[in-house]
Design a protein that fits this description.
This protein is α+β, with helices and mostly antiparallel strands. It has 18 helices and 14 strands. The strands form five sheets. Strands 1-2-10-7-3 form a five-stranded mixed sheet. The structure holds protoporphyrin IX containing FE (HEM). Belongs to the cytochrome P450 family.
């Protein structure tokens, strides 16, 4: 346990969980353990970032809050940052911050766009483009895994799905990076706000084009979609495109970087993956539990709710911490062990209940493609320089990950089999 976490175990109040720096600079595992054991429903004090909020850390309680969208609403925001600022302008329009019958209707429109036929096509593209990206990088021997590989896979996937033209993708990726987290300590809240607005405006223009000339993509499905006999409004369309591009890119990208970092640190697990002694799909689940790229989500209580011995009052902000729930000793045997063969693995990386991640299938396909390509093309992989981490109270993982890789013979073959 680090010096900081030892202090936290006696006095959790020294940590400001709303502050991005707290998560970037400290190892909070001791704090989470203390809260799970001693204060599972913890009242976080007011900070410069906003008012008080509840912190829920045990797996069972996290699932209970996620599941209960009658008493805990997402309509005032589902991230600490928006909740602390008093609400989310996309409420009632964007799936993730809509509840009740409206959420079910919107989810049905989006699920229709994510049909098995479209997902199968996109999955095939993911496997091919991941093999290509990993092989090309591995042949160089030393590279930044975040910039050379992880940056490309999820963004390509979600843009293929949405129908974002190739030429616009690098710009969208840059905007995405500043919208929720920041690699740069000098970036401000207004930079993030400007980036979010630019993404929305981009999709407004693209949706207009697709409404006139629909193609076989998700933007067209939304632009021409309807609920009952009413067409989706421009706000519903752009907020949901925004949600997909943000949800589909950052989390998956960061989980890939954490996966590579963990594999380079746990050589026995890397060998198990390479030698195929662990099933790929089982390994994918452990990597997702280990990475937990979306650390928390949030809700507002609609009525007084007693949790353990604490009363959460109507109107209170409640945050559920996936990163703690995924290390809960009550559910996971040796939770601090990175064990690719772990089964069962009931992680909450994709949430739980009515808002369960819409992109979980794609995220799993991406991670499986990455692990497969690494096992095929990399004989050894090591972190080879200082790692930079995102600064965020929501997202976690490396934004820069220098690695040194020894290529396999397959990586050096002249032609890449399809
Ligand atoms: C919802 C995590 C990838 C789209 C969620 C939620 C979590 C999550 C925890 C629940 C939010 C809540 O309850 O408030 C992740 C992680 C991913 C990932 C860790 C990658 C490793 C994706 C991808 C897409 C996506 C690839 C899109 C293709 C969405 C959407 C929702 C959602 C639209 C809202 C669902 C609803 O409210 O009904 N995600 N996600 N996510 N995710 Fe993901």
């Amino acid at each position: 346990m680090s010096a900081e976490t030892a202090v936290a175990a006696e006095n959790p109040a020294v940590f400001d969980l709303a502050d991005p720096v707290t998560h970037a600079d400290s190892d909070l595992s001791g704090l989470w353990r203390y809260l799970r054991d001693c204060e599972p429903v913890y009242r976080h004090s007011e900070t410069v970032h906003g008012p008080e909020f509840w912190v829920i850390t045990r797996h069972a309680d996290v699932q209970a809050v996620y599941k209960d969208n009658i008493r805990f609403t997402s309509e005032r925001g589902n991230l600490l940052t928006t909740l602390l600022r008093g609400g989310d302008t996309a409420a009632g329009k964007m799936l993730a911050v809509t509840d009740g019958p409206r959420q079910r209707e919107l989810r049905a429109v989006l699920l229709k766009a994510f049909s098995p036929r479209v997902l199968e096509r996109v999955s095939g593209q993911v496997r091919r483009s991941t093999r290509r990206a990993v092989r090309a990088a591995v042949r160089r021997g030393a590279f930044d895994f975040a910039g050379e590989v992880a940056d490309r896979i999820p963004m390509t996937t979600i843009c293929d799905l949405l129908g974002v033209p190739e030429a616009d993708r690098p710009h969208l990726l840059r905007l995405n990076k500043s919208a929720l987290s920041s690699d740069d300590a000098d970036e401000t809240f207004s930079d993030a706000w400007a980036a979010r607005n630019e993404i929305l405006m981009y999709f407004a223009e693209l949706a207009e084009l697709r409404r006139e000339n629909p193609e076989d993509d998700v933007i067209s499905a939304l632009a021409t979609g309807s609920i009952g006999n009413r067409a989706l409004t421009v706000h519903e369309i752009i907020f949901n495109c925004y949600s997909l591009v943000i949800g589909g890119d950052e989390t998956a990208r960061l989980s890939m970087c954490t996966a590579v970092e963990a594999l380079s640190e746990h050589k026995d697990q890397w060998r198990a993956l390479r030698e195929g002694t662990v099933a790929r799909e089982t390994a994918v689940e452990e990597v997702l539990r280990w990475a937990t790229p979306a650390m928390h989500f949030g809700r507002v209580a609609l009525e007084d709710v007693v949790l353990h011995d604490r009363t959460v009052a109507a109107g209170d902000i409640v945050t559920v911490w996936n990163c703690s729930a995924n290390r809960d000793e009550r559910v996971f045997d040796r939770p601090e062990a990175f064990d690719l063969a772990r089964q069962p693995n009931k992680h909450v990386t994709f949430g739980f209940g009515p808002h369960f991640c819409l992109g979980s299938y794609l995220a799993r396909v991406e991670m499986s493609a990455l692990l497969g390509a690494l096992a095929e093309f990399a004989a050894e992989i090591d972190v080879a320089g200082p790692v930079t981490r995102v600064r965020s109270n929501f997202l976690s993982g490396p934004s820069r990950l220098p690695v040194a890789v020894l290529p396999t013979a397959a990586a050096d073959e002249l032609d890449l089999a399809p």
